[in-house]
């Protein structure tokens, strides 16, 4: 059995597999500030790429047609013209491909113009942007190493390219974004036609997913051992072609590798007949493929054990991840017997004449939602004040980029004092924390379509324990979210829909809060924490007198 699994693993060029629950989730990759930074990095690359390719065109005389019999050429031009003839054919083809790559990227930026926020709100646009940035950065690095550009000897340009290169997303980042599309499909039950055409929630991407994109996402899903969606994406791709004899260089992938993904994915799902058919398709394209021959015979022997198990996804092995996905999908809910006990009521706050609309979502530990705490003006202002330091953190200065932070402390220098207004409204809510407590600083966080998922073992180290006291947190939704972004408590079966002006109160030391992926755009939250401290003569809510 181990030998067969080894053979299956060799069928496609996948180097190292990452379990679904072992993926390193980033909290800043798809935030608004970071995506804007990547977009501007691409603009810088396009400007540099244009200069480099222009130099290549001059050097190889690709900018205009010249006659070898032109008698007006001076000696220097004739020398350069000789270089054009001496250049290898493959190098000239690379130059032409780079020019085509540059023109395509410029076309996209021309369409986007100054509507960058609308562009980076669409997950498929983000996927295409990361692919372009990585491809262009590789091409720029290759061109810069050529003889024509090396002759410049400009150390400032070298340092600039080094900084841009450090700001370009890594291969792991690109794979995370690609797999995030799979998770959006899984969590929000997106149809294949809508997702592959780029139409999400009545918003269309600039370009649909290409066959190469679909293949790469299927490959990455297989690499993450999400075999069910690897099959769905690969099977959809096979339906796009009338013939399977597609040249490898036409779309940038091999049909043999595609069927290898399907065959290797069907096997762990116990779909032996489908796995055998996929192996047979490999043999139709490559009759001498010995691995496919061995696998076909092996699957043929297993067909008798095929109990017609329906094709379904294997849940993640990690319990927290499994509950998190189920809560975001809406398939895991609180039992009706318990849910009907929680009702919405008006609770008097610190001001004797002001009542707050309060909804109890869980009793032990307390999870409470306050509705209509603040208006749109306050939410927009605080979100913008939090966005500014995040955006400024992306630019060390006018010349260098760096990664932004996950959260920011808004600097409010306005006459209205929006942050103070929101802080006062949060303090006026009828909290369950018992005085005395230490109040934290109001912070602003931005969540992208990766959501906010973390390992519980790490989270236990985040919660401060000041004198053994409980930590309470208030999360306020500063803006409405077009789709997704629900706040979930996986171990208490609580799912809260984001609404502008709502505030979620919970004990962070007793429960774990996570945020579902934002399907379109980003989500803006403000958070304030309260740390209970022991004091002589006072009993806290978890102590006895």
CATH architecture of the largest domain: Sandwich
Major beta sheet, specifics? 9 strands, antiparallel
Q: Label the overall shape.
A: flat
Uncertain runs: 1-24, 78-86
Compute the number of helices: 21
Beta strand %? 5-15%
CATH superfamily of the largest domain: q2cbj1_9rhob like domain
Brief digest:
The chain is of the alpha+beta class and 545 residues long.
What does this structure look like?
The strands form 4 sheets. Strands 3, 4, 5, 6, 7, 8, 9, 13 and 16 form a 9-stranded antiparallel beta sheet that branches. A 3-stranded antiparallel beta sheet has the order 12-11-14, with helices on one face. It contains 21 helices and 16 strands. The protein starts with a helix and ends in a 13-residue tail after the last strand. Helix 12 (227-238) runs antiparallel to helix 14 and helix 15 (272-285) packs antiparallel against helix 16. It has 545 residues and is α+β, with helices and mostly antiparallel strands. The chain has 3 domains: 1-29 and 171-314, Tetratricopeptide repeat domain (Serine Threonine Protein Phosphatase 5, Tetratricopeptide repeat, Alpha Horseshoe); 32-168, no CATH class; 322-532, Sandwich (Jelly Rolls), CATH 2.60.120.620. It is flat. Strand 4 (355-362) and strand 5 (367-371) form a beta hairpin.
